[in-house]
């Protein structure tokens, strides 16, 4: 472990060069964020502000961190999941002067130790993925509230947590729900999760997807993305749901819908994407087929009840990286990937850079907006806020341009037509 008090704690600083090359690769695929870096590098709107971040330490996050720093921010960072930190990226960031506390495979105690180090000096802004940092600040650091201007949240689960805090009147500073921006959820959650989840499953198993009964629990944006990609690879996709409209959409999109009780008996590969606990539990594991592969792509490791699986098992061993083989009392073997933690980040590299480009452009803009409001003396309410919808069109427009794509604009007559309610048949 390489540790410099107050500056970094990472697994191995000698991995920095490898990490640096991967960051450069991500930069070449994140034109929107790189354009923001170029646009604001001289002005440095973040100068004088400290951002504490708690988000997966990946090559894409490194591009976000270095963009914020290039635009003047002081940054202190921790990972937001025990298995998602890429040690070479953490090393490259530490080596480049980023205050970072993150390594792959830390335990719960170390996880919160890392978060605490990022707020040893109080931040002005918090940037979360899953709300663990903002929750820590609210629970244990009441004294920092006057210092903090606002925050942002990256993911669906975190936004749910924050809305619950907001409804309870417990939120003490304004937070942008970056997840809820169209250029985030409609791309990252669908195409990002879709591809990276399959990527994680393949790296951990190298299994054939074609012809398999592929069960996806949850048909929200993430589940839909996974189902779409699995179908495209020739799987027979089965959806389990608790929400009638979501189940109906799945049916009309050509998926089979059944209960988990039924799906457990026929599935070859299972992925949970619900945000709910105990989606696959003991009663399901015992009825699964020999060799079933089970994983989760939701933010927290609560969707698979692995405690019940362990109780039903006589043996467990790592059969390959990120793949644990359980032998059940009934003699069957079940393979659990990444110990039920989000398989796309634990067993693969998370979402591709191209989609994170838009998610992180939204993060950048959220923090810029918080600072601008602060400097203008605007008193933002202590609630969960949406980013302005115009921002989605701006981000999408830049993204299209960088892809060499052009779209039409309305003629003056069309604009008039669009607002003329008297025009009918
Ligand atoms: N996520 N980040 C990455 N490559 O850095 N991949 C996925 C990456 C984020 C994604 O935005 C999602 O909302 C969150 O991880 C789930 O924790």
List keywords for this structure.
binds 1-(beta-D-ribofuranosyl)-1H-1,2,4-triazole-3-carboxamide; alpha/beta; 44% helix; 425 residues; nine-stranded mixed beta sheet; 17% strand
Structure description:
The protein contains 18 helices and 17 strands. The strands form 2 sheets. Strands 1-2-5-4-3-6-7-8-17 form a 9-stranded mixed beta sheet, sandwiched between helices. It has an 8-stranded mixed beta sheet with strand order 11-10-9-12-13-16-15-14, sandwiched between helices. 44% of the residues lie in helices and 17% in strands. The chain is α/β, with parallel strands linked by helices.
Number of strands: 17
- Computed structural class: alpha/beta
Gross geometry: globular
The small molecules bound here are: 1-(beta-D-ribofuranosyl)-1H-1,2,4-triazole-3-carboxamide
Give the distance, in angstroms, between the N- and C-terminal Cα atoms.
Answer: 73 Å
Would you tell me the overall average pLDDT?
97
From the alpha carbons, calculate the radius of gyration and give it in angstroms.
22 Å
Biggest sheet layout: 9 strands, mixed
Our estimate of the beta-strand percent is: 15-25%
| Poorly predicted sequence stretches spanning 5 or more consecutive residues | none
Counted by DSSP, the helix tally is 18
Strand order of the largest sheet: 1-2-5-4-3-6-7-8-17
Query: How much helix, percentage-wise, in residues?
Result: 40-55%
